[in-house]
Known about the structure:
The structure is a homodimer.
Chain A: E1 5-14, E2 17-26, E3 29-35, E4 38-45, H1 50-60, E5 70-76, E6 81-86, H2 90-93, E7 130-131, H3 132-144, H4 148-152, E8 156-161, E9 166-172, H5 175-188, E10 197-200, H6 206-212, E11 219-222, H7 228-237, E12 240-246, E13 249-252, E14 259-260
Parallel strand pairs in A: 3-6, 7-14, 10-11, 11-12
Antiparallel strand pairs in A: 1-2, 3-4, 5-6, 8-9, 8-10, 12-13
Helix pairs in contact in A: 1-5, 6-7
Amino acid sequence: MKEKIKKFDVLKINGKNTDRIQDTIVREFALTLFLNTHEVTTLICTPSNLEYLAAGYLFSEGLIKEKNHIKDIYIDLKEGLARVITWKDDLVKSNIYPKTLITPKADRILSLPNDINIEKKPPIKTNITIEKDEIYSLMDKFDLSPQIFMSTGGTHSAALCDKKDLLLFREDIGRHNAIDKIFGECILRDIQTDDRILITSGRVSSQTLNKVSKTNLPFLISKSAPTDLGIEISKQAGITLIGFVRGRRMNIYTHDWRVIT
Amino acid sequence: MKEKIKKFDVLKINGKNTDRIQDTIVREFALTLFLNTHEVTTLICTPSNLEYLAAGYLFSEGLIKEKNHIKDIYIDLKEGLARVITWKDDLVKSNIYPKTLITPKADRILSLPNDINIEKKPPIKTNITIEKDEIYSLMDKFDLSPQIFMSTGGTHSAALCDKKDLLLFREDIGRHNAIDKIFGECILRDIQTDDRILITSGRVSSQTLNKVSKTNLPFLISKSAPTDLGIEISKQAGITLIGFVRGRRMNIYTHDWRVIT
């Protein structure tokens, strides 16, 4: 296992005090991801749960659809490589240049905005609702969860929740990696996402929504701001998008009928 | 000119109050960057100062070295394209797969970590120093500058400073884009960076340092956390790296002799 943190000598200044101390710093790691023989991307990430990250990235970018497609996952920590082997290579070949790309050459930059071109699947239609106090309670638990962040201040987090509790919680230096780790864990451990909630510490962009809209999650909740396309895609995909959940405040951008105020 | 913000209807909850209001949201834009006939990358960005962004990205990724190499820059806002034309194409061809890459195929993900393989140039040796109070004063001015952020909460900022004042200030939804806009402006407007200071709102990773180490800036100051490789590269490159500058506190990670406490 790679270490997720490392100690460094730091000169800390606090008002009139100057102290040389050992501080905990978050590590970064480059993971080059292969789908069978195709090199897909290189993720700059926190070196933990890399199987989940690899499977989750391929799922959220539309390159694999379900666990049954996966034959094996190899992680080479020394070389910084992940290889996901599928039962059929032709299953994924047609998806490796998905429709969202500007040119076929841009195979490494997936989920591009400017046009809203999420996969044409019907919008999420579940009638589930949530109380605003349930949202505050989930965010309070989310804020108490980060382990790497608390010691380094350098990571993002994501969590899968039901209305009462956090079910999965993952951290990464990349905000999309934290989400992909959640999605990968859901796939590989057969955890369903119907009527559940995703919380992210990070901003919500078209890239975030292109990932989340591969699932059937009706709620996306963020501590931070959305972009215009994040809102537009949420609206089309039938996702209730909530941002700036801080203290006893929140902004509901789309499908606010699912929140009981 | 593309708008940088857009209005949306938002349900705002604040304690017991629930109001439907118009809120200002930051826009995102995909800019596909060509260097002559080579497609280099697609940047998800804020649509402002795109000439600076294009030139700055190519500079900070080592694909162009100086203004004199650039013959022309075309921006097509409708198609989301930037094309930088150089006088000689062979000038850049040898750099388009720089040494930092894991494989020649990974031409879209530049500045990869795992190894510290910045261009072998001598470390920055300037004897310039700065008072800690000058750092606080610069950060106070930096915090008062953001224009898009103040209305949307959705952008990162970067600034070029001397010891007394902010000289350039740019914002973008991407933290590296904000830095590249500064570097592009320096190149295109012949603004020198010797003995000057870069402030960023964002985290400092190997990618940040691989960009900054293309300049001769001796100071990199962040409101946020560094990664392990951000610190390692700063040390090797002779850069004074300062993080978590908040209120009257800061952490100095490398070459702290340049800060007079």
